Amino acid sequence: MFGMGPWEIVLILIVVLLVFGAKRIPEIAQSLGKGITEFKRGVKDVQTEIENNVNTAPPPEPQPTQTTQTTSGTETKS
């Protein structure tokens, strides 16, 4: 997992436990979970908004053709 062995993961968990304490870890995990949920909901809302705008966009109007007079007297369309 991410190039870490089991001892590195245990060491990281011990450091987290010492830094934050046993009582704060569940609070931190809960707030982290809420933050991830809100982020996913925001991403989903943005994707839905983009899809709605793409599906309801009017088709582009055709460009009018222009005729120009050349020096030889013939008309060309561009």
Structure description:
This protein has a domain at 23-55. It contains 2 helices and 2 strands. The protein has helices at 6-20, 24-56, and strands spanning 67-69, 75-77. A two-stranded antiparallel ribbon has the order 1-2. A hairpin with a 5-residue loop joins β1 and β2. 0% of the residues are buried.
Observed structural traits:
78 residues; mainly alpha; two-stranded antiparallel sheet; 2 helices; 8% strand; elongated
Offer a concise description of the structure.
With 78 residues, the protein is mainly alpha-helical. Helix content is 62%, strand content 8%.
Oligomer class? single chain
The number of E-state strands comes to 2
Series of secondary-structure elements, N-terminal to C-terminal: HHEE
Rg value = 31 Å
Helix/strand layout:
Elements: H1 6-20, H2 24-56, E1 67-69, E2 75-77
Antiparallel strand pairs: 1-2
